[in-house]
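dumping this here before i forget
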Amino acid sequence: MKEIKFSDFESEVLQGGKVALDFYSTECPPCEALAPKFDNLHELFGKEIKFLKIFRQENRELADKLGVSSSPTVIFFDNGKEVGQRLSGGIKRSELIEGFKSLLPAERIEKIKSTIKPSVTECDVAILGGGPGGLTAGLYLCQAKVNAILIDIGLPGGHVSTTHQVSNYPGFIDPQPGYLLSHYMSEQTKQCGTQYKVAVDVTKVDLDKKEVTIDEFETIRAKKIIVGTGTAPNLLGVPGEIELKGNGISYCATCDAKYFVDKEVIVIGGGNSAIEEADFISKFAGKITVVHQFAKLQANKTAQEKAFANKKMNFLLEHEPRAFRKSGNKVEVDVEDLKTKKIKTLTTDGVFIFIGMKPNISLFKGKFDLDDWGYIKTDDDKRTNIPGVFAVGDVSSKKYRQITTAIADGTIAAIAITKELDN
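structure:
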């Protein structure tokens, strides 16, 4: 592995044959998550591909020239020509290997992969999920000198990291940006000593054996498991929704509102999330139409009052979407008037959908006792029906799903586990 500078770019990259180039920054959690994967793959593929790193903050001229605007960013070059798809953010090992297909034949990649030797990592507790519940559990466990490993398919933070602002988290007078609050939580837990295995593919989970296999080859073997896998947005289930996801339809205002400056958007939903996120989107969009199935919004009164006072926001109540289509750069939305049953078509620049969440439990199908809504049942100490397995945060059965309640869950589970391990 070699680190280069702008002055080396011509000789090392453009004349360097097959190259994987990583633009990294300091104080960058996604960069820290990528580093061990990049190093490991260098050991495997280093005879076929040249692995290079470049410090983006000291080579801004090159970064700007190449259009690199985030860290980390991995770019693939073949004999001086950029090939394949750029990778950025929480880059997974599997995504890097997929990128290598633009440099090497698929058969060669599979042959190299076949040389990987499986490994086993032992720990006291494996935490599945890096939201507030999992992070808090990790913090309490490491402070109790319990060896814990936190595993997440993305980067730590959960939904908090994509929330615009958090105004009801104790200890902060001013509202906190969600990404910053989740960063504080993550860094505190990491610095305490909890090991991180993040932006990974979870290949297999055996709750009975307390084993979690990641990236196909590494098995994390624990004495206890905490499940904090959170929730995912509900889908409407109407034609065109899946096809236009990420291409006109979004489920994250913080991620995508910035792309709709002075444009028109539709927000579907009328609960707290929909109305609060619509308010955030209004900082960018020129016009917002809220489509809601009921005659009244379900959001809290404060959010409603703010929304009705927002001149950018319009409301189409007692209507439901029936289909989405792409029309050039626009999105056409067929909506049904639930009173008259008539269908009309709305044309917009983009659609945001906020109609609630569902628990992420597909990895554990048939294993847990669930409540009527599909969430994992626990006792007062957050134990599930499987011995040695706990559930915390939004994935667990509870009356209220808030950052503070997830943190409470993580605290309770960690203390209960610590006592069990001490006995």
